[in-house]
Amino acid sequence: MRIKTFGFTLVEVLVAMLILSISLLGMAGLQVLSLQSSSGSLSRSQATMLSYDLVERIRRNADEVDDYIALVGNFPALPTSPDCLTSGCSSEELVQEDIIQWNTELSSMIPGAQTTLIEDSGTDDKYTLAISWQESQYGNVNNEPLSYTMTFEL
């Protein structure tokens, strides 16, 4: 006599649970990768925007480009703000005001970023601005530095 069984056997339920758990782990991995990519993308967009901002500040006060080069990577050594917006100032004070404002924006948007501004050798009025930063969030286990470099002419 043959007995009819209805429903799933225990093996079928275990296989279904295994497939479901593997697919959920895969979806979680994709979510982490998505968060890591979007975080890096946001930082790169902010670095691009800040680079254009600094370049426009330098172009506005191009006679003092050497002062910008000296101050861009040395934010902690800067004196207090000369407050040029309310009282007016010289072009040297404008450089200090620009760098203080720019570094304040940079540190709020990309904490811990390092910057350099150099004049390219062999060419007149050609400069390179580099911004680099670390991102250790969202699974960046190698803690690889991210960077944005912009070359411009005055």
Residue-averaged pLDDT: 82
**SSE string:** HHHHEEE
Could you give a short account of the major beta sheet?
A: 3 strands, antiparallel
Strand order within the widest sheet?
Answer: 1-2-3
Low-confidence stretches: none
Q: What's the total helix number?
A: 4
Q: Helical proportion?
A: 40-55%
Q: What's the gyration radius in Å?
A: 27 Å
The general outline is rod-shaped
Structural class determined from secondary elements: alpha+beta
Percentage of residues in DSSP E strands: 15-25%
Amino-to-carboxy terminus distance: 95 Å
Regarding quaternary structure, what we see is: single chain
Number of strands: 3
Question: Can I get a quick summary?
Answer:
By secondary structure, the protein is of the alpha+beta class. 53% of the residues lie in helices and 16% in strands.
What can you see in these coordinates?
This protein is α+β, with helices and mostly antiparallel strands and 154 residues long. 53% of the residues lie in helices and 16% in strands. The chain is built from 4 helices and 3 strands, in the order ααααβββ. It has helices at 10-60, 65-71, 84-87, 91-109; strands at 114-119, 126-134, 145-153. The chain has a 3-stranded antiparallel β-sheet with strand order 1-2-3. A hairpin with a 6-residue loop joins strand 1 and strand 2 (126-134). Helix 1 packs antiparallel against helix 4. It is rod-shaped and about 105 Å long.
Chart the SSEs and their pairings.
Elements: H1 10-60, H2 65-71, H3 84-87, H4 91-109, E1 114-119, E2 126-134, E3 145-153
Antiparallel strand pairs: 1-2, 2-3
